[in-house]
Amino acid sequence: MKRQLLGIDIGTSACKVAAFDEDGKVLAQANRPYHVYYPQSGWAEQNAEEWWEAVCDAVRAVLSEDGVNAEQIKGIGVDGQSWSAIPVDKSGNVLHNTPIWMDTRARHICERVRKEIGTDEIFRVAGNDFLPSYVTPKLLWFKEERPEIFRKTHKFVQSNSYLVMKLTGEMSQDYSQCYGVHFFHMKKLAYDTALAEKLGLSPDLMPKLYGCDEIVGSVTKEAAEKTGLKAGTPVVAGGLDAACGALGAGVYRAGETQEQGGQAGGMSICTDKALAHKALILGTHVVPGRWLLQGGTVGGGGALKWFRQELGGGLSFDELTEEAARVAPGSDGVVFLPYMAGERSPVWNPDAKGVFYGLSYDKTRGHMIRAVLEGVAFSLEHNLRTAAQTGVIVDTLNAMGGASNSVLWTQIKADVTGKTIRVPSSDTATTLGAAILAGIGCGVYGSYDEAVGRTIRITRVQEPNPDNRAVYDRAMELYLQLYEDLKGTFSRD
Hints:
This protein is α+β, with helices and mostly antiparallel strands. It contains 16 helices and 24 strands. The protein has helices at about 50-65, 105-115, 120-125, 135-145, 145-150, 160-170, 195-200, 220-225, 240-250, 300-310, 315-325, 365-390, 405-415, 430-440, 450-455, 465-490; strands spanning about 5-10, 15-20, 25-35, 45, 75-80, 85-90, 100, 155, 175, 185, 190, 210, 215-220, 235, 240, 255-260, 265-270, 280-285, 290-295, 335, 355, 395-400, 420-425, 460. Helix 13 links the parallel strand 22 and strand 23 (about 420-425). The protein is globular, with a radius of gyration of 22 Å.
């Protein structure tokens, strides 16, 4: 029997657990949902303990499938959503719900810090702007708004490191998730104590740094009883979901690019240097010696999911896209701004709103559906254009996430961006990336070249249609102009 690896993904709406053989074949997988809480305007929280319960249930479900054997699982990798700030005490008990990546409660703190310290020094160290979605403003929020929690906190952990802690009893901070911590020096790959002190924080708030493929510990007896895993199974630090997804989509060499089509959208360009842009996101890749220049948008599969729930009339996703396919490229002038929870890069406007423009009596639901698909593609192109300002030029995108299962949506993205899009086994890219890290750390693979060569398979390639590109170039200019014209109205009560 081939050796097996387990990948665990902590997403925004659900966890996914998948078991793979060493050639990347999916042996079994399971999803379990959990809640996002919105206690106030601009707040978005999750309960990390609910993640753990969901993961335990999903792992047990995977282990119950034929062909999966806990004895054969040689390593476990965990990836997770970005920018968590989970306060835990010395025993690992969660002290408060974590603000997640959509949370903007620390806006007032960001405004003050930007005035007091200035953005240039922070950007020089972190390679990222000081914005409320990141980890650092959330640490300051706990310090200022929940001082009793802050005093009790031993460490702040990330989504994946919380699960690693529950599995092994050890606290960790992987390099790829450090991009949310502004006193982490992105070029030196170490904490900058001087900047931390200026911010009124300390590197001691963060756990020990680990490489993403480095073994943190092994499954404890208690965790084995909860999950059905074998006690003693090695667990690596893991990393950011987008970075693991990039690896699982075959993006690990400089110049390769991943396009993300999950709940949120975005792209990750792999580089061998720390190339920063204030409107984008810079982080280290889960692959040593590589960085990712990223664009993260709120408009992804979640925009179509919202449309289906509210206006879809009970149709499936496939039926929705069939309606969209009957509408010409450009949606006959209907444009959608996919800013359904504010917007991240490159506009960074938490007040941005979703907008349909160009509706009239001759427009159908199909026009609106296609406009949603196109609007998400426009947000991708906006990030790619911004990245080009750093000198990074992209020719090919490797797609991942549920949206890449749609041939129509993938073609729209190819036409809008003018890029060739390659689609690997998209549904498992993120968990596969986490499993590859485990395979590297546990010696199943001797190198990333070997791991990617054995596990990643391209299922289809879609080329841009130059005739459609001309239509979309005009629509893209309208998309950009609409935001500029409307942005002053978004913050009005």
